[in-house]
Amino acid sequence: MTQVLIVEDSRITREAIAGRLRDTGEFEIVASIANAANAEIVCMRGNIDLILMDVCTADDESGLQAAAKIKKHSPQVRIIIMTSMPEHSFLRKARACGCDSFWYKDDSATDLLEICRRTVSGESVYPAEAPSLMIGCAESSSLTERELDVIRELTHGCKYEEIADKLGISTNTVKYHVKNLLQKTGYRNATQLVAEVVEKRLILPKY
Q1: Residues in CB range of 199: below 8 A, 6 or more apart
Q2: Does domain 2-120 have CATH number 3.40.50.2300?
Q3: Distance in angstroms (rounded) separating the CA atoms of residues 63 and 69
Q4: What ranges make up the beta strands (E) of the chain?
Q5: How far is CA 125 from the centre of its chain?
Q6: pLDDT of residue 165
Q7: Which of 52, 152, 173, 192 could, after both became Cys, cross-link 169 (CB 3.0–4.6 A)?
Q8: The pLDDT of residue 30
Q9: Is 71 helix (H, G, I), strand (E, B) or coil?
């Protein structure tokens, strides 16, 4: 039987996931916790085959950071990262952390049990892309990776010169990207744009 750790800050969601897995008779819930910072400790005790871990957990602890640590000392443990956030970078970061699979909780077309079974069998299951949102007049999928990089730095309060230095581009190139972003989205200034992407959780500065 597959030994499972669930890491999710919502008690209701934890219990719902645990119930679904138990009902199959294929999975045993070893632990169900709210904070990703404690996941490594549970894994070090052994007997964990599969982790279902939210990206954003209690006390603002990152499931992605916890996953990277666990994979270093327990690479055999399979990890499914879960989120309800449309943050565009999570797919890339999950792969970089070594997570085996990825599940959007709001994706009714993708069954969690199927992902669990396929992941345990050795498959890596990822959606093709992040959910697309309307950011002003534009679909978020129409924004380029570089444009999203610029917006992310803006959410941290960086000035154009600082963004240029961090991204290895010129200040004029940063201004060019911001101009294009405003034209695409229809916002009058970068402040409005930043407020929108944060409110809609296309970019979560803490993660």
Answers
A1: none
A2: yes
A3: 10
A4: 2-7, 27-33, 50-54, 78-83, 101-104, 134-135, 138-139
A5: 14
A6: 96
A7: 173
A8: 95
A9: helix
Question: What's the pLDDT score for residue 55?
Answer: 96
- How would you classify the pairing of strands 2-7 and 50-54? parallel
Parts of the chain belonging to CATH 3.40.50.2300: 2-120
pTM: predicted TM-score of the whole model, two decimal places: 0.87
Amino acid present at 113: L
Per-residue pLDDT, 150:
96
Tokens of 64: 């992605």
Tell me the H-state helices in 11-111. 11-24, 39-44, 63-73, 90-96
Q: How far is CA 62 from the centre of its chain?
A: 9
pLDDT at 107: 79
88 has a pLDDT exceeding 90? no
Q: Return d(Cα 189, Cα 178) in angstroms, integer.
A: 9
For 119-156, the pLDDT digits (tens) are 999 999 999 888 889 999 999 999 999 999 999 999 99
Tokens 């666990």 found at: 70
Asked if the model's pLDDT at residue 1 lies above 80, the reply is yes
Q: Which of 55, 14, 59 is nearest to 33 (CA)?
A: 14
Topology (CATH) of 134-199: Arc Repressor Mutant, subunit A (1.10.10)
- Residue 108 pLDDT greater than 80, yes or no: no
At residue 137, φ and ψ (nearest 5 deg) are: -95, 0
The CATH 1.10.10.10 domain(s) of the chain lie at 134-199
